[in-house]
Specification:
Helices cover 36% and strands 28% of the residues. By secondary structure, the chain is α/β, with parallel strands linked by helices. Strand 5 (77-80), helix 4 (86-94) and strand 6 (99-102) form a beta-alpha-beta unit. Helix 1 (32-42) runs parallel beside helix 3.
Length: 251
């Protein structure tokens, strides 16, 4: 069985790492270059860098910042935000990214998934999905959770998989920053419905929440931000805990 991955996430706004609750009320969390180096040194399995306002502001991801972070890392590096075409993917891979994450652009132009997979390989293409549970079920959102698409989470994830996505990064907007645990029921359904790894995001508040994401949610990886940024959970301590819970992790 493949080892479960622990992935810190750097949400970037105006060149600084930020973190909010339910996608709003952002507060600063530190310099992304320093945080990236620290997480790489602490044993994180991967790092995700999301320029969270790039799509909303209609601009490209900060390439120079990606290069500065990549230079500090010895682990796989995923970058997202403001990616609309193959030239954007090429630019970010050249800047040091190993994978790219697309969200709004994929929902608006699903064929972009096919294009990235065919040009660069499925392993490069992470489809991020921000979804909120409402009266209609799990609904996908655009532009950092600002615009509802009316699309169902599970239908969209299946289409992304069929088009060649290499991974699904699922963030529950209901759980984001609340620290009450991941959306394990939705995660399990998602993980069981696609044939690619699913990354859990939104809701980490304790080590037990990571355990539940893997055991109950069947996730392949768990992503978190504030619990790592503000020193509430150490990556080394978390991995030791998970190993003690008989979950396969890289120590």
């Amino acid at each position: 069985m493949l080892a479960k991955r622990i992935i810190p996430c750097l949400d970037i706004k105006d060149g600084q790492t930020v973190k909010g609750t339910n996608f709003v009320n952002l507060r600063q969390a530190g310099d992304p270059v320093e945080l990236g180096r620290a997480y790489s040194d602490q044993g994180a399995d991967e790092l995700v860098f999301l320029d969270i306002t790039a799509s909303h502001e209609g601009r490209k991801t900060f390439t120079h910042m990606v290069s500065k972070v990549a230079a500090q890392l010895s682990i796989p590096f995923t970058v997202g935000g403001g990616i609309h075409e193959l030239a954007d993917v090429d630019r970010l891979l050249s800047a040091g990214a190993d994978k790219i994450s697309i969200n709004s652009a994929a929902l608006r132009h699903p064929s972009l998934i096919d294009e990235i997979a065919s040009h660069f390989g499925s392993q490069v293409c992470v489809v991020a999905i921000d979804a909120r549970l409402d009266e209609a079920g799990w609904t996908c959102y655009l532009n950092g959770g600002r615009i509802s698409t009316g699309r169902n989470l599970f239908d969209w994830a299946r289409e992304a998989y069929d088009r060649g996505a290499g991974e699904i990064l699922f963030t529950s907007m209901n759980h984001d920053g609340v620290k009450n645990g991941f959306a394990c029921e939705a995660l399990a359904r998602l993980s069981d419905s696609v044939g690619i790894p699913v990354i859990a995001s939104g809701g980490a508040g304790s080590m037990e929440h990571f355990r539940d994401a893997f055991l109950l949610g069947h996730a392949d990886a768990a992503l978190a931000a504030s619990v790592f940024h503000f020193g509430e959970i150490s990556i080394g301590g978390l991995k030791q805990y998970l190993q003690n819970e008989n979950i396969n992790v890289r120590l």
